[in-house]
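Working notes for the structural subgroup meeting. M.R. asked for a predicted model of this chain before we commit to crystallization trials. I am recording the input and output together here so anyone reviewing the notebook later can reproduce the run.

Input as submitted:
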Amino acid sequence: MNRLFLAATTALLMSGAAVQAQNAALVEVGDNVMLMPWNKSAGEIEDAKVLKDGDGVELGEIEEVLGSDANTPVALVVDFEGSTTGFTGNKVIPIDRFTPDGNRLTLKTSAAEVASFPNYGS
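Returned structure, recorded in token form:
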């Protein structure tokens, strides 16, 4: 009886962890979703150039806008391919690390912190 209870409890806890992990996953937001306080839509932000804070060197561009759900943007995917600054790959970076600058975005973080952010895609 104790083994059956233990097995059932373990299965319940594991399924709860899976649900929590799914809830934490980010999804692409629609192009018409607004990124407040910038007053720009996700579609307007995609393909925007990303500049390094301080010296304005181009690092890459925005590939996707991700959210906790399809209407709540929380992060941007930056494609650093071709960057000569040491930043590489596609990284998921919280929106609060960016400042809008016209049609460009300035990234306010260090290379070490960027390396710690999760990769996007493969």
